[in-house]
Each structure stands twice: as structure tokens, then as C-alpha cells.
Specification:
OB fold (Dihydrolipoamide Acetyltransferase, E2P), rod-shaped, alpha+beta
Length: 127
């Protein structure tokens, strides 16, 4: 789903609520129809003008948590055979090496290859 469609779907309930309120004002208070329609158009225009500023908040593919660490380097804090702990960007993370890789000793430099949940998949980094 495109970012614009996602944004418009999030705005839809607000537009419906604005239309209901303006219809109620027209019925009970007696505001002219052109004023209600003008206010509704301004409300929708406001949302369309705000879209470029808010677009990034609605974009998919934003990396969060452990995914942000892919490609970064760290240091093994305990032996990784295959599981252990690594220090990456000032944080201690649970990590593992692939079963086909050799175990890593504490203090070994590592590179983050992937993230599976809250566990980092690492490999030995050549100095």
C-alpha cells in the first residue's frame, strides 16, 4: 500500500467526523451550506498540505531495534559458541554465530550480519 493511500486512510475518520459536526451545525445552528462546505474543504486541504511534512512517519520499511545494527561492528563480551553476548554501540546484545563458523573468543571484533528478534547474527570481523 502506498504511503499516500495509508495517509489518506488515516485521515478519513477525521473527515467523516468533521462532516458530521458541520452537518449538525448547519442543522441546529443554521450556518449556511456554503460556509459548512468551505470549512470542510479547508479541513481536507489542511491534511493535504501536511502530507509532505508527515510522509516519512507513514513510510514502511523503517528499521527499528536490532535491525538498525545490521552492518555495524562490535566486540564479543563472552565466548560465542554459537551463542553469547556482544557489545555493539554501547549496548550488550545476545548474539550467535552460524553453526558453520568457528567459535569466537571474548574480545574478538564482530560484524552484525542480521537480526532474528532480539538476537544478533554475527561473524568474525577481520582487523
Amino acid at each position: 500500500m502506498s504511503t499516500l493511500v495509508k495517509y489518506l486512510l488515516f485521515q478519513l475518520p477525521g473527515w467523516v467526523l468533521a462532516a458530521v459536526i458541520l452537518s449538525g451545525l448547519r442543522y441546529w445552528v443554521g450556518i449556511p451550506g456554503w460556509v459548512a462546505l468551505g470549512l470542510f474543504v479547508l479541513w481536507v486541504a489542511k491534511d493535504l498540505v501536511m502530507y509532505p511534512l508527515l510522509r516519512t512517519a507513514y513510510e514502511s520499511g523503517v528499521k527499528t531495534g536490532a535491525e538498525q545494527l545490521i552492518g555495524t561492528r562490535g566486540v564479543a563480551q563472552s565466548e560465542l559458541s554459537p551463542r553469547g553476548y556482544v557489545h555493539v554501540r554501547g549496548e550488550l546484545w545476545q548474539a550467535e554465530v552460524k553453526p558453520s563458523d568457528d567459535p569466537l573468543a571474548p574480545g574478538s571484533p564482530v560484524k552484525v550480519l542480521a537480526a532474528e528478534g532480539m538476537t544478533l547474527i554475527v561473524k568474525a570481523e577481520k582487523d
